Amino acid sequence: MNFELFGPSITDLEINTVMDAMKNGWYGEKKYWYVENFEKEFAKYHGRAYAIMTPNCTTAIHLLLLGLGIGPGDEVIVPECTWIASATHITHVGAKTVFADIDEKTWCMSAESLEKTITPKTKAVIVVDLYGNMPDMDAIREITKKHGIYLIEDSAGALGSVYKGQKAGSFGVGSVFSFHRTKTITTGEGGMLLLDDKKIFERCHFLRDHGRSKEVHYFNTEVAFKYMPTNLLASLGFAQFQRVEELVLAKRKLLLFYREIFSDIPDLYLNPEPPEGRNGAWCTSLIFGHSHNVTKESVMKALNEKGLEGRPFFYPLSCMPAYGGASPEKEAKNPIAYDLSKRGICLPAAFQTDAQNLLEYCNAIRSIIGFQERKVTF
Ligand SMILES: Cc1ncc(COP(=O)(O)O)c(C=O)c1O
């Protein structure tokens, strides 16, 4: 069996919209029409005042850190388990990256660990809505308010998630989304920064296009960045976004399928549902309880032996060579991240997944941990 674990849903709507941008989106008011309208609709959906489309989510984080004036001498806290993109630009703006542990229930940043990790140098915390899961936002908001630090929400993979009636991407001073090929809506590569504060918006907007003057062509007041989006990619995002509910529901259908297929096995954990909300389920992950006596490596090896690809739960960032490598002290500081990460894998998340293949994949996992295959008729 050979199928992709991640991939988008592209219909005639997307194809026709991109064709329109291709034919008509180059002159006059049309040349940034899709960028501006994708931004406008995306901000409105999330109840935010401003949106800035970027070439990817990583650059959106960079712009926000710059817009907040974070730099040398500052510390920024991120959760241990996330894709490195959440953290890379903390280094690039010259600040120090500090890792907080994750919470056993949410798999996102632990509020308790966050509070312990704050120092007088802490300027901001980047919480991550990991795989569509939501952190304990009430507690985290409270802590950031108490300590006067910026709350940044990395909602790269949380489109459609809701926490206590509030959409992912509407928390904190700013939030970021990814439209990578693997995400719920895609532009191939692309990102979005959402903001409410006009001054921060204007600063980030200015920094996105070489800090150019609005009044005089080719006149720059600062050495800035080139993080401009393209109208062509925005047209794809605009079309995909018209289908946001349909696509989130398709992702949730996968999560619900996994819940059902593994429902008879104790001590297995799938993306939790946030309180009074829903998990957008960009990528369903599976954590094996200790009683199964497996590691993500042993499960991925067994999957490979069956001809299947396995993807690991994110490694704790602090253990990687990029951040100086593992040490007993690092593991002791953030034990939950190190423990959960050892026992987690990501499950297939592609929109174009054959139901029979999916069942075979799940049955492969069941047999690896010593459970009988399930039969389902589609
Ligand atoms: C949590 C998280 N943050 C940031 C990113 C970066 O997104 P991009 O690849 O669009 O830069 C990703 C990408 O997967 C992610 O999972």
TrEMBL record:
Family the UniProt entry places it in: Belongs to the DegT/DnrJ/EryC1 family.
Annotated positions of the N6-(pyridoxal phosphate)lysine modification: 183
Active site annotation, chain numbering: 183
UniProtKB keywords: Aminotransferase, Pyridoxal phosphate, Transferase
A Pfam short name: DegT_DnrJ_EryC1
MF GO annotations: pyridoxal phosphate binding; transaminase activity
Gene Ontology biological process terms in this record: polysaccharide biosynthetic process
Domain of life of the source: Bacteria
Protein name, entry field: DegT/DnrJ/EryC1/StrS family aminotransferase
Record PANTHER family: DTDP-4-AMINO-4,6-DIDEOXYGALACTOSE TRANSAMINASE (PTHR30244:SF34), TRANSAMINASE (PTHR30244)
Matches recorded under Gene3D superfamilies: Aspartate Aminotransferase, domain 1, Type I PLP-dependent aspartate aminotransferase-like (Major domain)
Source organism (scientific name): Leptospira ognonensis
